[in-house]
Amino acid sequence: MFKETYNVIGVMSGTSLDGIDLAHINFTIKNEKWSYEILENETASYPIDWLNKLKVAVGFSSEELTELNDDYTDYLGNVIKSFIDKHKILNLDAVCSHGHTILHQPQNGFTLQIGNLPKIAEIINQKVVCNFRVQDVKLGGQGAPLVPIGDRILFSEYDYCLNLGGFSNVSFESNNKRIAFDISPVNTVLNFYANKLGLDYDDKGKISKTGKVNLELLNELNALDYYKKSFPKSLGFEFVKEIVLPLIENYSIAIEDKMHSFTEHIALQTSVALPNKTGKILITGGGAYNDFLIDRMQFHLPNVEIIIPNAKTLEFKEALIFALLGVLRLRNEINVLSSVTGAEMDHSSGITYK
To answer: The pTM is what?
Structure first.
């Protein structure tokens, strides 16, 4: 007989490198309906040495990646242990951790999330559920996005769920199937240019707003092959490094103009991605704080009601949903949808240690 309540921690590190999100979650399931409460939560910022390593790791050799994975598992395990000790969290059912994506090449049957080695369970002395993407890629799927099952279970009152992180991704119901895909890069690009100005990020989009659109750049971005593909589809940092940034860098224009043009690109691609331009859209992720980006999205989607939730849900939704994925794995229930990833079948993914 399955339990009705679960006491877990969700852990997520995104491609925007904002830090490691940790959220202590209580889940309850009654009459097949799930509810949640986000308790203690925090984002552990990366120290500069880790930030620099993770920014360039996409170019590492296999030997360097093996060493990085080992070191990062130590680091991540100690971050989680500190969170548990600091908040005196007891009686956990599991720690559900995504790890940090370094390589994502589903077209080559490969995806790598570091920090998911068995020793993480020893470091934190807890049951760990992790490595959610690999099985899906082996089943012919994209290994992403994985959040849509959580959107369906926890946020069904919205017509669309949009996350604005390193990349944007959307999920929605269509003909009783959950559809989801990555739309475009977001903070992977905007933060890159904010960094060039000596800033971690563009606060509320204030810098982007001061620039102006370069129509030639905007048109070239919108013409990229990825946007012509049908779903399921997903993006990795390789797309930004090898295609997007070189394209933008071909233009000798002010950084503010590059950021303004790319913000317009994100907003336009979001409007194109929604099949019906009406209803309610829940927006989460760090990009939800970018007022200029949200304004441009509203401009292109005038008949859509944009809803930005409370800070806990906005900032920790991905950690929340990976916690749910871990609980579903403990219950041996489906936590990855083939309609989303393109895998051979729906399945229950994730590796459990201890």
So the answer is: 0.88
Which is nearest to 114 in space by CA: 234, 13, 224, 237? 13
d(CA 231, CA 340): 8
Taking only the tens place, the pLDDT of each residue in 247-275 is 999 999 999 999 999 999 999 999 999 99
Closest CA to 100 of 165, 151, 149: 165
Element holding 68 (H helix, E strand): helix 62-87
Report how far residue 206's alpha carbon sits from residue 162's, in angstroms, rounded to the nearest whole number.
22
Contact between 342 and 142 under an 8 Å Cβ cutoff? The reply is yes
d(CA 124, CA 128): 9
Identify the H or E element spanning 20. Answer: strand 20-30
> How many angstroms separate the CA atoms of 343 and 142, rounded?
7
pLDDT average, residue stretch 13-22: 90
Q: What percent of the chain has pLDDT over 90?
A: 95
CA distances from 58 to 31, 53, 78, 154, 184 (A): 45, 9, 24, 33, 19
Residue-wise pLDDT for 57-70, tens only, equals 999 999 999 999 99
How much of the chain is in helix, strand and coil states, percent to nearest 5? 45, 25, 30
